[in-house]
Batch of 3 targets.
Target 1
Amino acid sequence: STYNSPITIVVTLVILQLITAGGEAQIYSSVAQEIASAFSIGVVLGIIAGVFWLRVLYELRGGSYEDILTLAFALMGFSTVQVLGGNGAIFALIFGLVLGNGNVVARIFRMEKRASAGVLMKRFQAQISFLVRTFFFIYIGVVFLLPSPLILVYSIILAAILVLVRYAATVISLLGDTILLDYRHIVTAIMPRGLSTAVLTPLVIAANVKNADILVQIVITMIILTAIIATAGSYYFHHKEVA
């Protein structure tokens, strides 16, 4: 999940940027320039904002509201990047990566005053975890409609493909580790799509993608199906191993 979520976000944003830019640009070079411009603005400003905020966190260390201030600063940066024509989601991703790896960034930029947001983010996550989980399930309930037979069939096919691909990737990644290789079925079963997938669906709607409502229903159905597969698979393989 640590690597999967950022990759999912970046790939989705690239595709959306390509779709939205394609209607305005007539040649691929123009589309590529628009994508590169939006992403570069987000990356550069994300790094600058992250390094700046690390210094601020050093001065605010031990404060009571540094987590809320961090969130407020991130939202301000997101809005600013969007106004400047950049990609706000990429800014938020890079900003978070810089804060989460504060010690490494400090060494790279030779910063004498070092601060890391790792502990800060853990405390902040503990404070809002209930809110995030609640909002996630409310969001799923609001946007989910009973799928038509065709959408259900598409979702089942995609889920089956996902299981096969994950199994193959699991076997390849565990080659040489005979102990973990014995647990490949359990690792494969732990595959539910979650918050990052659900959060990206509104971006598809906001981008005015054709048939976005159908795509959203497939995504939500996939989230539910993969959660069922993960729950049933983990239970089955765990008890099989115990037996």
Note: The longest helix spans residues 28-60.
Target 2
Amino acid sequence: MKDNKLVRFFNSVNFSIDHTVFFEEATLKEVLLDKKNNKMTLVIEMDNLIPIEVFKELCEKSKTLKGADKVRFKFLIKNNNKLFIEYFNYYFDILLENCPMLKCVERDKIVYDNNKIVVEVLNKAEKKKIESLSERIIIFLSDMGFDDVDISAYINDEARKKFKEELLCSQEIIDNKETKKIIKGSAIIGEVSQIKSLITNEVDVVLIAFVFGINAKSTQSGWHIINLKISDYTDSIMANIFTKKEDELAYL
């Protein structure tokens, strides 16, 4: 490598020497320090963008840098006509961890036209969510050296109508089936609420949702506290379970 400043940085975070070959002609143009947030930004100029796996390792190793809580990379790329979809999917996966509503988005229905992205959704809530995240996605892709990035979402009315018909059909099948015995818990009584309508902590709320994350800890007094991350695709929320029963902890 020709740039000694990059070499020193890579050595300080123990970056894989096998991956430094992708930075052979790279130049560290600028180092920006955000003292208020203890954040460092490295501006790197190079001919071609590094493979996504190399970028992942770079981000992971940079977490070990002493003196900065976070390291951000901004690439100035001369020939940036590749890897756009790979980097978009990488960042989309990061957003997905904290926003389960995005699981509704079918990746094969996303249309790419150069650096323009069009996301197909089924309802207004999904469209609004994509629009609310678009600025963050654009900033990330711009940092990766992609110019004129644009993101939009549209509701596929035909697919939405078909989805509703399938949902109604499924409901009819359920209604016609003989009621089964409850495997776990008590009978559910009451109207179903949407998570987005919940404003404060509430009890005895009925939700139809799925669990996308779980965490548990025990106290010295014998209580087990179980945190469930749940979503119904309108929003997500944390639900807490308090129990002293070992079998309930094991079941969850």
Note: The chain is about 30% helix and 25% strand.
Target 3
Amino acid sequence: MISEAVIGNMCNRANIDHLLQHVAFPTHRDSSSKVFGRRVKSIKPGNRQAQKPVKLSRYLVRVLVCAYMIIGHPDIVFSGQSENETTLAESAANFIREFELLIKIIINGPIRCTKVDESFAGSYCRTFRSQLEAFDRAWCFYLHHFVDWKSEDAKLLERDLVRAACQLELSKTGSGNASKDRLWKSKHF
């Protein structure tokens, strides 16, 4: 399990912004591209007005929906059983549990819980504030593992695409001698 200090460090604003940049759509990464259906005015060489960068939401709905897909359909989402995938699935399940408890507290108000732990006797109350903090910690932990998994998955996809392109090229050209013959014929005819 990860210590509170490590989770607290993962939740700092700079680290979250860095992680959000990895999962943001390309339109949010480049301020000169199309944003929300409108074209952002580009800076002309003579006009040096600084553009305001697009501020990313701390909680991206697309990444939240991915958590539901991960826990609901892991066989479709994951390509195998790597350590990153296992850790991501665990953090997604914890994140969804905290998210659903937060929604329950928003709708019904504070919840009295009993904690089954030998060091903690009795019950405690989950307020909106305490649950929001728990939700945010779970979000940071999940987002960190989601970005790790996404970058590993992108590398695997890139490798598979390169392999497929090479196989396609080999099948198009046939054997090495046949491709040399085709090249010679195309140059001379």
Note: The CA atoms of residues 84 and 148 lie 7 Å apart.
